[in-house]
Description:
Elements: H1 5-21, H2 23-30, E1 38-39, E2 42-48, E3 53-56, H3 78-89, E4 91-100, E5 105-116, E6 119-126, H4 132-137
Helix pairs in contact: 1-2
Amino acid sequence: MDTGKDAVQWVERAKNFYSATGKQIAMAEFTNPRGQFVQKQKYIFVIDQAGQMLAHGMNEFFVGKNFIEVKDSSGKTFIREIVNTAKDKGSGWAEYQWFDPVTKKELPKRLYFEKVDDVIICCGTYKDTPDPTELELL
């Protein structure tokens, strides 16, 4: 089961990588589907303070698109919530419903994010679901 600890650790790793390599190299690596910031259901994505996707580990076609008005199935504009909280507090958590590429179902997701310079680095995990390695055994 997910405790959210992994998401925090991944964002910390991504922040360190961003600081060490710079924005351009970091965004390329965060968008690399076979890179160090993608593992099964877990990946890094990065948005700017206007909700523009700068990097996405699972779907490179999202990069360059604005997500500020994107809603989950309940109508929640979760990217707007992330941007507003990051501007006000610098970091936080968001919860929403999202399509899980492994189970092919919409599931509750919890996401941790931190503002670094002018970007917001995010990592989400699906709540109350088995570990992805357990899914392989089912």
